[in-house]
Write a structure and sequence with these properties.
The protein is mainly alpha-helical and 1303 residues long.
Length: 1303
């Protein structure tokens, strides 16, 4: 070739030479990045070929050459008036321009081609997709224009002989313009660049010219890609990777251009498709990370090809044959993916697939155990692309779960699907095949390969199931949430440090989200998790997954479905029956009077089910069954159902619990009831007694909950009253008892059998009486008694031999209640038995409380609520005696019992002053060896309050016999329930102590007393309850036994007595009794805290408990004082009678001012008394002024100033009409007040805070005196000495008063 001239860009020879030199002289790879960003042409230039690096010296040479070219052009323009110097006309040349340069080179002849801006290539690497698209569009438009003009040139050789930059003549693109050839080489090298988004942009730029310019020879282009991006032995890691990725993107651009398909259509004998397939598969075989994208490029290309071309060209590629042959041994998931997609395209069992696909191909054979064992390596090696899921699994998902199966599941799960549709679905071969495929896939691959392998493969198992979830039918959940899968999930979740813990947590969250809107899926997931964890999924994983799943059922269909699955799981049924009529628990009985039944033994059926269920069937553990039992009653907790729907679900649960908990089949495990039209089934293994008891307990809970939500329909509405659960249960129980082949789960003794029969008869009578009463108050009483009768019946079955006597007594009470209600008004003689009935009822309820379950206690409280208005004084005292009962050591027991029962002794009397003095001698704070018993210091009127309850016709001997002369036998009969506690707990090794049982019993009795106070706020018996509860509260043993008991008693006194909505009325209580009660409360409020005298310091915990108890007792005394004063005010006593009350307060004030530490009464408390009862403050004002002048303790004079101020407010005038009266009263006390002020200012306290209190008090007195115009009288009472002292102590405060003008 001739010599070549330099232009604005380097010649191709110089570029190649520079690249070669730089490659030979290269020392460090990093120097390739040191390109000058200021050189716009260098920025636009394509990166050098892979494996050829440029040094800094070469770049400097390029810069110098370009700078000299620019200077030479600029000088030529200046010398020739802006025109370049004329030179001999060269051949047409390729002209490229840089949009950032000062000027663009132009062709020197009219035949030159348009320029090709280099900015297009720079924009192809932009991060913005829109910029890349615009650059690619502009590039292909310019290349089309250049190629069009090039083809119109008469002498193309002259252009070829010109400057062609990097376009070579022997590249096979002879029909392309040099610009196009340069652009193609530039684009091919650009896809190998990792700069920004160069690969995406240059691939797009390569796709468009190949697609739109037909002059490009595809075969030559394919060779050019291979030559330009070839890998040499001298290349290292990153260079090799960029080169291989560049070839991949170039092949992708070629496949998407569509030219390969067009060439095949024009010449079907062309080998271009085969060559392209070989090149692509050969590239995929080089590196593992190239396999999946290469397969996707080939699959995108195959989608555009007809099946004929695929079969005759793609499938015949030698590299593809080789790749498929090695796939199963090498574990190539991409080869399997390609084989599946190619078979889907051609639908032919081609031999090229080899072992990858079964022959003949079908989904059933593909997922068979034999074939899965062949391709298992291909499947498990798909973990290399984690955390992304391999594309192969999307194809396998479509094979496992065809669309027909998914749609069929949706139709069958709809509520309106009929039995006929279900039968058709059952016989659907597509669904059967999908079920078998899923089962085989889970057993062979998921469980046998992934879950027993590494963490990566366990991760893959979770990813596969997450991929399947959107299409997974509910009936397939049992296959995928298998035993090994659930156990693996539990192991990971139970270990927070596990590498897969976040993966498992994410999977669980997605699983819960998947079932949130589908009850069928929620049931399937819940049952799978609990079945394979033996009912302990939440406990092991430390989550609330199952609890939350079971709480989300809000429809009757969902509740029924969950209930059916729970029942089937309990009786070891592996699948829900397709025809529910074989085990339809929800059918209502048509007749419950008599029954004929048929007993069926599973082993006697033709074709024993034992062989059918032996595979994969395990006997559910007792823990799992216990979870089933506990879940039954919780189904309705969060469900928002109508009363009718809730009753239907309740009856289903009730029947199941009754059958499994109360009865067993004598022969076989199934009993068919023709009258009930139901088939009852028991587990093949006998249910343990513990589970039977649990069923009974849940049955009690179900009936108790039904009692709380019952809402009877008024008879006036004309609607039929639904059968309540109690009646339904009793009839169902009687019907099952009449079946010969069914018996109770345990045998009962004669007494218990008799009690059960009596209770059944009693419930029947109560039911009739309730129906006859309609919706009256008596109907509520009968209804409550019916619930109690049923609870007691179940309690007898739960604890035989313990409740038969109580059952007989309750039956007697109910019978007498019938007789009394039916003979009302017939005579007084019949009515005299009513109190005795109530006493027996109260005794019966108390005897049931110690060992009753929570549902039974609820029924007891309901019965007591409706009958508490008829409770006699004797019955109430029996309850209160339980609260006061105390356990003492053996040597103190006899003395304590006699003290409790001796009403003649004042058990609430306060200690004498001599005792106080003795205590004072023992210590300044009254320390003693024994803790103080405040029960003897509360109130001395218990006897007075009780005396008024005794009938007038009873003499003293009868009273003494009833209360004081009670022998041991009588006491034992009265406290049978207490004796039962002590006896049983002494015999129970390791059981709770008798003291804790007694506390528990007291708490239950307190609940009854709270009901009594709530229902009878104005009853005179409130005072009796108050006195006994107060005595129990201040008893030291109460605090020692239980702080909960102490707080409970205090809460009842405060809320139900002190703050009751109605003040009790009892005119029989004398004022002397109220005054005595008031006195005891005031003395208790003034009692100092006494610490325990001991050589060893008590612990801080005991000191804190003692101090808290003292504060509670003081609070009780103060609130009791307010309450007694309310009672006194409500009685409207005369002023003469009220002097007794004033005397009580006078004695309190005397004790406060005249004793040092005996009285610790709070001034704030007395101030509150004065504020609430101004008449007391008014009457005691003068007495208070006398005592405050010379107190025994100086600081109490200052403390009492607020008390004096509150008393002054009682004398203040309310309006003009009371001005004179207030002035008269104030004047009466003015002398004493003046004397007190004189003493106060004369002996001013030393502390600043107390001085401030004195000045505040004096200012208040001065303002009041001034308002009443008694200033002169006050000054006269003060005298000169007093005035001088006031001026000194009070200053301007007194001077302002002195300057006040009087009328």
């Amino acid at each position: 070739m001739g010599s070549k001239k330099r232009s604005s860009a380097d010649s191709s020879e110089d570029v190649e030479k520079n690249h070669t030199d730089s490659f030979m002289k290269k020392k460090k790879k990093s120097k390739r990045d040191k390109m000058n960003a200021d050189d716009s042409d260098a920025e636009a230039a394509a990166p050098p070929p892979p494996g050829v690096a440029s040094t800094g010296k070469d770049m400097e040479k390029k810069k110098k050459r370009r700078a000299s070219d620019k200077e030479r052009k600029r000088a030529a323009l200046d010398n020739d008036g802006g025109e370049p110097p004329r030179r001999p006309k060269p051949p047409a040349a390729v002209v490229v321009s840089d949009s950032n340069s000062d000027g663009a080179a132009a062709a020197s002849s009219s035949s030159s081609l348009p320029e090709l801006p280099l900015s297009y290539f720079r924009d192809l690497a932009s991060p913005e997709g829109s910029v890349r698209e615009a650059a690619a569009t502009s590039l292909v438009t310019r290349l089309q224009e250049i190629q069009k003009q090039y083809e119109m040139l008469p002498d193309k050789g002259s252009v070829d002989g010109g400057l062609m930059l990097e376009a070579e003549k022997n590249d096979g693109l002879d029909s392309c313009a040099p610009h196009l050839r340069y652009a193609l080489r530039r684009l091919i090298r650009g896809v190998s660049s990792s700069r920004e988004c160069a690969r995406q942009g240059f691939a797009l730029g390569l796709t468009l010219p190949v697609s739109l310019i037909s002059s490009i020879n595809v075969e030559s282009l394919l060779k050019l890609i291979s030559d330009s991006l070839s890998v040499s032995s001298s290349m290292k890691g990153q260079d090799v990777k960029e080169c291989l990725l560049g070839r991949l993107f170039a092949y992708g651009a070629l496949a998407r251009s569509g030219r390969l398909v067009e060439d095949w259509k024009s010449d079907k004998d062309s080998q271009i498709i085969k060559e392209f397939t070989n090149a692509l598969i050969g590239l995929a075989a080089k590196k593992r990370y190239l396999q999946e994208p290469a397969v996707h490029v080939l699959l995108d290309f195959v989608e555009k090809l007809p099946a004929e071309a695929v079969l005759t060209h793609v499938m015949e590629a030698p590299e593809l044959h080789k790749w498929f042959e090695q796939a199963t041994e090498a574990g190539n998931p991409d080869a399997l993916l390609l084989a599946l997609k190619l078979h889907e395209k051609i639908s032919v069992d081609h031999p090229v697939f080899g072992k990858l696909l079964p022959v003949p191909f079908s989904s059933g054979k593909f997922f068979s155990a034999d074939h899965l064992s062949v391709i298992v390596d291909c499947l498990k090696e798909s973990t290399f692309c984690q955390p992304r899921v391999h594309s192969l699994w999307s194809v396998i998902r479509e094979m496992l779960l065809p669309e027909a199966v998914v749609q069929g599941e949706d139709v069958s799960s709809a509520p309106s699907s009929s039995k006929k549709q279900k039968r058709n679905r059952k016989s659907n071969p597509i669904e059967e095949e999908a079920t078998n495929n899923s089962r085989s896939f889970c057993e062979i691959f998921m469980e046998g390969t992934l879950l027993s392998s590494s963490h990566d493969r366990k991760h893959l198992a979770f990813d596969i199931l997450l991929l399947l979830l959107p299409k997974l039918p509910a009936s397939f959940v049992q296959h995928f949430l298998s035993l090994k899968f659930v156990q693996c999930l539990m192991d990971i979740l139970s270990t927070k440090d596990s590498w897969l813990h976040k993966v498992a947590t994410h999977f669980l969250a997605e699983l819960i989200d998947w079932v949130k809107d589908d009850d069928t899926k929620r049931v399937a997931v819940t049952m799978a998790l609990q079945k394979h964890s033996e009912g302990k999924f939440d406990n092991i994983t430390r989550t609330k997954t199952v609890k939350d799943l079971a709480a989300d059922f809000e429809t009757e269909e969902g509740c029924t479905l969950f209930l059916q699955n729970l029942m089937n799981l309990f009786v070891d049924e592996q699948h829900v029956p397709e025809e529910p009529s074989s085990m339809k628990w929800a059918l209502e009985p048509s007749s419950l009077n008599s029954d004929q039944s048929q007993t069926t033994d599973d082993n006697s059926e033709i074709g024993s089910n034992e062989e059918k269920d032996s595979i994969g069937t395990t006997v559910n553990s007792d823990v799992l069954k216990s979870w089933v039992i506990e879940s039954l009653t919780g189904i309705l907790k969060h469900a928002k159902l109508s009363p009718e729907a809730k009753l239907r679900v309740q009856k289903q649960i009730l029947k199941f619990l009754a059958v499994q908990g109360l009865f067993v089949a004598s022969l076989g495990t199934e009993v068919t009831s023709f009258e009930l039209q139901e088939k009852f089934k028991w587990p093949k293994t006998a249910t343990p007694t513990a589970l039977c008891k649990m069923c009974i307990e849940q049955l009690q809970l179900l009936l108790s909950n039904s009692q709380k939500i019952e809402n009877p329909i008024p008879k006036e509405s004309g609607l039929e009253q639904p059968e309540d659960p109690v009646s339904y249960f009793m009839k169902f129980l009687s019907t099952l008892q009449s079946i010969p082949s069914v018996s109770l789960f345990r045998s009962l003794n004669e007494a218990d059998e008799k009690a059960v029969k009596e209770l059944q008869e009693t419930e029947s009578k109560l039911s009739k009486e309730e129906r006859n009463c309609g919706l009256s108050a008596d109907a509520s009483k009968y209804h409550a008694l019916r619930h109690l009768v049923v609870q007691l019946l179940l309690q007898i079955l739960l604890h035989p031999g313990e409740f038969s006597e109580a059952a007989s007594e309750l039956s007697v009470c109910c019978d007498k209640a019938f007789s009394s209600s039916s003979t009302d008004g017939e005579g007084e003689a019949d009515g005299e038995e009513e109190p005795a009935v109530m006493d027996v009822l109260v005794d019966t309820l108390l005897s049931l409380l110690p060992h009753s379950s929570a549902p039974m206690r609820s029924s007891i409280e309901q019965v007591f609520k409706y009958f508490c208005q008829d409770v006699t004084n004797d019955g109430l005292l029996r309850m209160l005696r339980v609260i006061k009962k105390d356990l003492k050591p053996a040597r103190h027991q006899e003395d304590q019992d006699s003290e409790d029962l001796d009403d003649d002794e004042d058990c609430l009397a306060i200690e004498d002053e001599e005792e106080e003095e003795e205590n004072e001698e023992m210590g300044e704070t009254g320390e003693s060896d024994d803790p103080t018993d405040d029960s003897e210091t509360v109130m001395g009127v218990a006897r007075m309050a009780v005396d008024r309850e005794v009938p007038e016709n009873s003499d003293d001997s009868e009273e003494e016999e009833d209360d004081d002369g009670m022998d041991d036998d009588a006491m034992f009969r009265m406290d049978t329930y207490l004796a039962q506690i002590f006896k049983e707990k002494r015999n129970q090794a390791g059981g709770e102590t008798a003291q804790s049982q007694l506390v528990l019993f007291k708490l239950r009795v307190l609940s009854l007393l709270e009901i009594y106070l709530h229902e009878n706020p104005g009853n005179p018996q409130v005072m009796t309850v108050y006195l006994n509860l107060a005595q129990a509260l201040v008893n030291p043993s109460t605090a020692e036994s239980s702080q909960q008991l102490l707080q409970r008693i205090w809460g009842i006194i405060q809320k139900k007595i002190f703050k009751a909505r109605e003040l009790f009325k009892d005119e029989s209580i004398e004022l002397s009794a109220l005054a005595s009660l008031l006195e005891k409360n005031l003395k208790l409020a003034a009692k100092p805290f006494k610490s325990k005298k001991s050589g060893v310091d008590p612990s801080k915990k005991k000191q804190s408990a003692a101090w808290n108890r003292h504060k509670m007792i003081t609070n009780l005394a103060q609130n009791s004082t307010y309450w007694v004063l309310r009672i006194i005010d409500s009685r409207k006593f005369s002023e003469t009678e009220l002097e007794k009350i004033l005397d009580v307060f006078r004695s309190v004030l005397v004790g406060y001012f005249d004793s040092s530490k005996k009285s610790q009464i709070k001034v704030e408390f007395l101030e509150e008394v004065f504020r609430r009862r101004p008449w007391i403050a008014h009457q005691l004002f003068g007495f208070l002024l006398e005592k405050i002048v010379n107190p025994k303790v100086e600081y109490r004079r200052v403390e009492a100033l607020e008390l004096i101020s509150e008393a002054l407010r009682s004398l203040a005038p309310i309006g003009k009409e009371t001005q004179e009266e207030s002035k008269k009263k104030m004047k009466f006390h003015l002398v004493k007040l003046s004397h007190f002020i004189k003493e106060l200012v004369t002996n001013m306290p030393e502390k600043q805070a107390r001085r401030a209190k004195v000045r505040k008090f004096c200012g208040r007195v001065f303002r009041m005196v001034s308002s009443l115009k008694l200033t002169k009288s006050l000054l006269k009472g003060l005298g000169e000495d007093g005035q001088t002292a006031c001026e000194t102590a009070l200053g301007h405060l007194f001077m302002n008063l002195k300057n006040t003008e009087e009328d």
